[in-house]
Amino acid sequence: LSQAANLFTTIQADKLPESQRGRVAAITGFVTMVAPVVGAVVGGRFATQPFLLFLVPGAVALVFVFVFVLFYKDADSRSLTFDGPLSVKGVLSGYVFNPKRYPDFAWNWLGRFLFFFGLTLNTTYTAYFFAQRLDIPVIEIGDTVATVGLIGILGTIVGVFAGGFLSDRLRRRKPFVLGSAILFGIGAIVMVLAPDFTLLIIGSLLTNLSIGVFSAVDQALFLDVLPERDTEAGRFVNITQFATTIPQALAPLVASGVLTLIATEGGPNYSVLYVAAAVLVVIGGFVILRVKSVR
User: Fold this and answer.
1) How far apart are the C-alpha atoms of 54 and 20, rounded to whole Å?
2) Domain boundaries defined on the chain
3) Phi first, then psi: what are they for 99, rounded to 5°?
4) I want to staple 173 with a disulfide (CB 3.0 to 4.6 A). Which of 50, 145, 221, 253 is the partner?
5) How far apart are CA 229 and CA 28, in angstroms?
6) Which DSSP symbol is given to 64?
7) How far is Cα 179 from Cα 173, in angstroms, rounded to an integer?
8) CB 115 within 8 Å of CB 178
9) pTM for the full predicted model
């Protein structure tokens, strides 16, 4: 599934003009957020039928991909040849690049890495953080987290469309990326300092709004700075994916280590993770300002 998603991004890199990248990223982001919700609803209909529970989603994916392949018109590639023989060394070398040769791509990669590292720190222990802040047992916090999550989805959707469409209209990317990072930092700090549930919701809404803006605009920005667009777009799309997947794998391990080191008699201090997330995300926003070829 991840590879299929990367291929769709590669097609965007091949076909989308710069003036449409933000809005298409917004629409893609919206679909990405809504699809799991629809899938959960559909899956609930087959909860007592395990065979259909797995068969129906697979069939839906197969049908829609087949429709795409049927109607999407791609250039004829039968006359193309490989530049060299396929080897393990060649495949592995495709996953690295020279930052000095592609500085704008490198700065955007690093900024995205920091943003998603902070985001993962922020979300890994959400239930425990809310339980601690509201002084509610973790086993009773599920409904509260679900309510905050639903409000957060709405905020993210607003951010996705506002950021994506406005960045195209104004022909600016970096101010939106930096603004979203700062907004995330503010939201995280509001949650840390919140004395009640209302401010926790406000802080969560701010962070989710910023996530929507960042996900749409940085998607467009990375397409703007994608190196070797005509020959190696797929390679660099996959490299960019590591800026998201590596933090998602490492941040929970780092978070658990930090919580262990700073634990007190009252238990883990989850607020520290939110402060660290705010700092990392804001730094990531400023790092992306180093991109020179995009405004």
Assistant:
1) 36
2) 2-79+95-288
3) -60, -30
4) 221
5) 20
6) H
7) 10
8) no
9) 0.85
d(Cα 38, Cα 130) in Å, to the nearest integer?
26
Single-letter amino acid code for the residue at 103: P
Which pLDDT value is given to residue 275?
94
Is 117 a residue whose pLDDT tops 90? Answer: yes
- Distant-in-sequence, close-in-space partners of 255: CB < 8 Å, separation ≥ 6: 120, 121, 124, 125, 273
Q: What is the dihedral of CA 188, 168, 5, 9, to 10 degrees?
A: -130
Q: Side chain identity at 72, as an amino acid letter?
A: Y
Report the alpha-carbon distance of residue 273 to residue 258 in Å, rounded.
8
Residues near 271 by beta carbon (within 8 Å), at least 6 away in sequence = 129, 132, 133, 192
C-alpha dihedral over 212, 208, 246, 128, to 10 degrees?
Answer: -170
Does the domain at 2-79+95-288 match CATH 3.40.50.720? Answer given as no
Map tokens 């749409």 to a residue.
216
- What pLDDT score does 102 carry? 94
- Residue 46 sits at φ, ψ, to 5 deg, of -115, 25
pLDDT band at 139 (very low <50, low <70, confident <90, very high): confident
Token pair listed for 47: 């909860």
As given in the structure block, the two tokens for residue 294 are 């995009």
d(CA 144, CA 190): 18
Query: Which stretch of 45-59, 103-117, 196-210 has the lowest confidence by average pLDDT?
Result: 45-59
CB-count burial class (<10 Å; 0-12, 13-18, 19+) for 280: buried
Closest CA to 128 of 288, 266, 278, 290: 266
Q: How far apart are CA 85 and CA 151, in angstroms?
A: 52
DSSP lists the bridge partners of residue 267 as 264
Q: Contact, 31 vs 173, CB < 8 A?
A: no
